[in-house]
Amino acid sequence: MTREDTAALLRKHDRFLIITHRRPDGDTVGCAVGLCAALRQMGKTAWILENPDATSLFTPYMEGYVAPEEYQADYVVTVDIAGLGLLHQNADGFRDRIDLAIDHHPSNEGFAKYNLVEADKAACGEIIFGLVRIMTELTAEIALPLYLAVSTDTGCFVYGNTTPNSHRVAAELMEYDIPYRELNKRHFRTKSFKRLQLESLIMQNLELFQDNTLAIAPVSLEMMSSVQATEEDTEDIAAFVGLLHGVMHSATIRELREGECKISLRTNPKYLNASKVCALLGGGGHAAAAGCTVSGSVDEAKAAILSAVERVQRDG
């Protein structure tokens, strides 16, 4: 699917429901709100499926866009979702009726009836921006969530996935008198005291491998409990470990519940493909950033990611 094909589909249909992924980040939330606002501006009925995982860091952007319980959708769209395994449980009823998937992950499974996948984009928000430019006028209401999407998925434009297109899109969005300074401070220059305590514990428990170039850090339930950290305090925690000098690859193991861990892997893609590593464990993502969810304890998850890394390094 091209953007033009996708725009034609969206013009043709109505009564949209937009779905975000589990543990939603700024990209999936920003894409959902930006697309929903654009569709409404086109005269369409559009809502976003409630995501129980959404934290207070992102829920303010979704105010006025979350679908009422009685809403019946005719056309279902997912944003920033590479596979059905990333759907929240409350979206299970839509697994077999997803009409359109808009995504930027190379590991996208092509699960929808139609798929618009641009794997060269740093953020899915860049794709939604392009669609909006084809379909309707860009406004501040649309620009703000799309800036959220692009800025958060590029780490405020410092991650290795950042491209000239990311900057061009952000620059144009900033022209619409959106409060980007406040957004940048909120998402990139503000940390709770609990978050700082959690980072201290992570450093105390971090382990280095492969001549100190690979860092693996646990974020256990016990660590979370000891500082009374919440889900919001762990936002983008995977990027923290990679700040250590000399580290090329880092894995953060977040214990979600007893017997289940989420692994977030960040790599130098010249030397290690993160998506290939996580694919061995049932996940996926990008060459430089990928993730997976595995069964077992934190120690078992550590052994699993180490084994997967070594396998990809060995087999290529």
List the helices and strands and how they pair.
Blueprint: H1 3-12, E1 16-19, H2 26-41, E2 46-48, H3 59-62, E3 75-79, E4 100-103, E5 114-117, H4 124-135, H5 140-153, H6 164-174, H7 180-188, H8 193-205, E6 207-209, E7 214-219, H9 221-226, H10 238-241, E8 249-257, E9 260-266, H11 274-279, E10 284-285, E11 289-295, H12 298-315
Helix pairs in contact: 1-4, 2-4, 2-5, 4-5, 5-6, 5-7
3D architecture notes:
With 316 residues, this protein is α/β, with parallel strands linked by helices. It folds into two domains: 186 residues, inorganic pyrophosphatase (n-terminal core); 123 residues, Diaminopimelate Epimerase, Chain A, domain 1. Helices cover 39% and strands 17% of the residues. It is built from twelve helices and eleven strands. A hairpin with a 3-residue loop joins strand 10 and strand 11. Helix 2 runs parallel beside helix 4, helix 2 runs antiparallel to helix 5 and helix 4 packs antiparallel against helix 5. It is globular, with a radius of gyration of 19 Å.
